[in-house]
Structure formats: structure tokens, C-alpha cells
């Protein structure tokens, strides 16, 4: 009897986004900068302990709001998913993916699973491969709602 000890290899796209409203400088000494370079290094550091994940490309939308998903590199990433070039998306945190509560949920809960895409938000300690129903249906929507509210409050100021 043969045993299958081969673990799945993931072809990963690192998604980096920085809005003009996000500010490049952290608000306090305990928070990390959201800069594009910082996000990239953060993802690369995280992946050093994940040999099953290989970065294929970084998708960078610098200066784009997280409110809508009509961002050039986000759309390029979606096309690469559909073309089977990547099957894993990793972000520093959920707010980098987007700040629209409904749309973020659509991607994480429906589209990515439908397309067989593993999704990882490092700072939110979320990995769709190991997430339980509470993470996916309670914790992530609450965090996403907070990100959406933050964006709305900033636009009102």
C-alpha cells in the first residue's frame, strides 16, 4: 500500500495595497508602517517558515483606496488566479485586501474557495486552510466591518 506523503505546494501571490489615506507612518511605536516595502518584507519573512508556499508574484496597488476592487493589480491577480498561475493569496492584514465589508466577504467566503484559493491574512491570524467556521463567519466579518467603518470615518473627516 502506497502512502501519499506529498504535501500540496501553493503558488502564491502577495497582495500589497496602500491608500493615500492610510499614511505611510505608523500612528504609534507599536504599530508597523503600512508602506509597500514593509508589507512585502513582512510577507517574505512570514513565508520563510512556510516551505509549501512559493511566491510567484507580488501585486501592488500603491495609492488606491480599499473601498472598491477596480484596482489594476488586484484585477491582474484575479486573472492570474483564473489562469491557474496562483492558488494562494497572502496579505499583511485584511485591510490591505480591501475596506469594503461586503466585497471583502464575497472574495474570502465565496470566490476564493470556489476557485480553490488559499487566503492568508498574517496580522489577523487567518489562514483559510486551517480556519474554523467561527473564524470565517464571525471573526473575519467583524474585522472587515471595522476596516469598512474606519474608511467611512476618514472620508467624513
Please tag this protein with its features.
157 residues; alpha/beta; disordered N terminus; 5-stranded mixed beta sheet; 18% strand; single chain; disordered C terminus
How many strands appear in the DSSP assignment? 5
Structural class: alpha/beta
CA-based gyration radius = 16 Å
Q: Which assembly state applies to the chains in this document? A: single chain
* Content of β-strand: 15-25%
- End-to-end gap: 66 Å
Largest sheet: 5 strands, mixed
**Low-confidence sequence ranges:** 1-5, 24-31, 147-157
Short description:
This protein is α/β, with parallel strands linked by helices and 157 residues long. It is built from 5 helices and 5 strands.
